[in-house]
Amino acid sequence: MSLIKRSDWPSTLGGSLLSDFFDDERFFDSRWLSGRSMPAVNIRETDKTYEVELAVPGYDKKDFNISIDNGLLTVSAEKREEKQQKQDNYTRREFGFTSFSRAFNLPVNTNDEDVQAKYEDGILKLTISKKEEPQGKLKKAIQVR
């Protein structure tokens, strides 16, 4: 008799047998059930704006909460789902909850009053205007006495 090592068997070290079983995609799509997600973010600076893009597919526009408080931009979302499947002898009901929250410190030259948000094709795009810098200020030399 020989022993065969199985790499897909639940491990007892570093976790529990139940979490190994229930968190496995073979049992359920664990990302849907656990609600764990952190969207990928792209940040771009142009001459007049900062652009923040978050990859958040599967949400609706109404799911997002975006706020700016003392130079801190916070983007969060919650989505609750309920799935029900009925057949002859049984009813299967599943509940799902996903959420995330990301916060970004805005530079001092941002205009908190001019922020636009657009959600399209799973991408949430925020455009934050920069404050206009005063034009015409000349360099002034200071003489030491």
TrEMBL record:
Protein name: Hsp20/alpha crystallin family protein
Family of the protein in this entry: Belongs to the small heat shock protein (HSP20) family.
Taxonomic lineage from the root: Bacteria, Pseudomonadati, Bacteroidota, Cytophagia, Cytophagales
Domain of life of the native organism: Bacteria
Residues covered by the SHSP domain: 32-145
